[in-house]
Design a protein that fits this description.
Blueprint (H helix, E strand, L loop, with lengths): L1 H13 L12 E7 L2 E6 L7 E7 L8 E7 L3 E3 L13 E3 L2 E5 L2 E5 L2 E5 L5 E6 L1 E7 L3 E7 L2 E7 L13 E3 L1 E2 L6 E9 L6 E3 L7 E3 L6 E11 L5 E12 L4 E10 L1 E2 L21 E4 L5 E9 L8 E7 L7 E2 L4 E10 L1
Parallel strand pairs: 3-5, 20-24
Antiparallel strand pairs: 1-2, 2-27, 3-4, 6-13, 7-8, 9-10, 10-27, 11-12, 13-14, 13-25, 15-25, 16-21, 16-27, 17-18, 17-26, 19-20, 19-25, 20-22, 23-24
Length: 333
Amino acid sequence: MKEKITKTLFLTSLFASNMFASDGTCIANDHSRANQKVEYIKFGNFDSWLIRNIKESGIIGGNTKTLYEIAPNGTWNNNNAYRNQGGSPWATSNVLAKVSGITKTNTSVFRELRQGHGYCAKLTTRVEECKVLGLVNIKVLAAGSIYLGQTQEPITGTKNPMSKLDAGIKFTQKPKSVMFDYKVHLSGESNRIKQNGFSKVTTIAGKDYPDCMLYLQKRWEDANGNIHALRIGTMVHRFTQNSGWINNSQFTIHYGDITKQPFYKPYMDLLTGDRTKYAKNSKGKMVKVIEEGWGKAEDTPTHLILQFDSSHGGAYIGSPGNTLWIDNVRMVY
């Protein structure tokens, strides 16, 4: 029984540890600023939230847990699987898992009131605990993420869990930058931990930083249903300092091959290995999105991946307490 509970908690936490539809109409609320055009990503003001009240299995306490989704305002008092609602292109690391007959949730993204600005999204790294009949206590580290795409709920098995994340949305524009408001609280720890519920807690060298990743891809599908891509645009930023609210902050999107540019870091490279994303092909099957190389700056993208995380290190790695607040996500042209 401990193995079943561990698998369930493993899945809900993995999806909270770093993850990512639409017909290209994800942009709304146009307005102009000086000589640039600024467009909100739909639901990117984070003032609309769906509240999901989900009852977990009795063997792990039978508590009702609240999950928050970036969608039209509403409340679900059931254990239904979530699919993006009302045209929202956003998904979160808040997930429902049903594994071996056990219902378990994870919540690491929260709706938070922002004085004078409606609501914002609060992403936090935390340790998720699961007590089985009050006897077995399993603890897993989970980070908070919000992203453009869709999670294939409910999570039902441990095999290849990242294949349940449909990464990105259709998008053919070429913005100059992404703009948003943010606030950062770092844990203050010199190193991170890795805590996956299967083995003892280990120390990972280096501080934990929240991050934002934006990738513009030019995708195509081959005769066998495999999805390939060229990287057209890139923006990756790590938040290395505590801050209060910083409004209207812009982050430049760089086009073409950036590997020889002075700002280039290895974590901006093509998505391979554990960083490889998945998407649904024309046959409805989830497959890898294989980045074949760097596209040309003048190429037109087909898809946009945009993701915010409270920790940067991957599954189960981070520092509890790391928190990133995000509001008013816009594209600048």
